[in-house]
Structure formats: structure tokens, C-alpha cells
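Write out the bound-state structure for methionine sulfoxide.
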Amino acid sequence: MYDFKPDPALDPAETHRQLCEAADALTAGEPDAVANMANVAALLWDFLPDLNWAGFYRVAPSKDGAGSELVLGPFVGRPACIRIPFGAGVCGAAAETRATQCVADVHAFPGHIACDAASRSELVVPVLRDGAVIAVIDCDSPSPARFTQADATGIEALAALLADRI
Ligand code: SME
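---
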């Protein structure tokens, strides 16, 4: 049994350090990308308070094979939209710009894609391998302005750890 126990009294930076440490321990030496993303989605859900969705979109071929887009990966939360074109919504913006998107009010974000009507704020971090986006990590919260710079920095460190493990 894995028994990672986040302490709610910790400050966010320490929470993220422990989350990364747990993710490292769970994914080290495991080559299966789906298993690693599934476990990390569960860790995000366990460690970060006040989320209603946490998981991955992977860069994968579009249905017609003509290009690539974001395709739903392992997650915790309500069923979500499956395919997101580059540039669309918060996830597509992160993939297109290769930059973290920290959105305090999703209703004010042009083109935001509402997968769960409860979402009020969102943090999306691209996972880069050799400079190219291979996935994004998406966290949604029912509270406005839930995500801080500490969350962005922490999830960026997680993305760097996972770059050759997913
Ligand atoms: N809100 C996202 C879509 C994914 S869901 O939040 C799980 C977006 O605007 O890209």
C-alpha cells in the first residue's frame, strides 16, 4: 500500500515539494506512461486542497491524422471533453504558448472550455520534452483565484520531473 499523507498545515511550497517527492518515488523506473499519469493525477488530488479536477491532456494525433491536438489522459474528477485543439481554452493556450496559464477567473478567460460547471479557477502547466509540448497538467478549482505562484512553480517542477516518464 502506498501511504503518502499530505499535511494540511504545511505551506504550499512544502506541500509541492512533498508532492514531487511522492511522484518521483511512484514513477521512478516505471516506463508505462498511463500508469505514471494515473498515479500522479491521484497524488495531485490527494495533496492539493480545493480541487474539482486534476489530470493530464496528452499531445496526440487528431482524428483525421492531419495534425495533433490535446487528448484526454488520466485524471480525477468528472468526465471531461476529450479533444482540445492547440490554442483553444486554457489547456490549448498552455500547449500553444508552451507557458503556464494561471487563471483566477475562468469565466473571464476568452474561449475557456467548461468541462465541469463548478470550475472557477484553473492552472495549466505544459510538460516539455526537448522543448516540445508532449502533454499538459490541468488543475481546476471550484474557488476563484485558488492557484498561486507557489502552485505554478510546484506544478512546473512536477512537469519537469515527468518529462521523460510519461
Ligand atoms: N477548462 C479547460 C478544459 C479542460 S477541463 O477543465 C478538464 C480549458 O479551458 O482548456
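---
DSSP finds four helices and six strands in the chain.
The chain has a mean pLDDT of 96.
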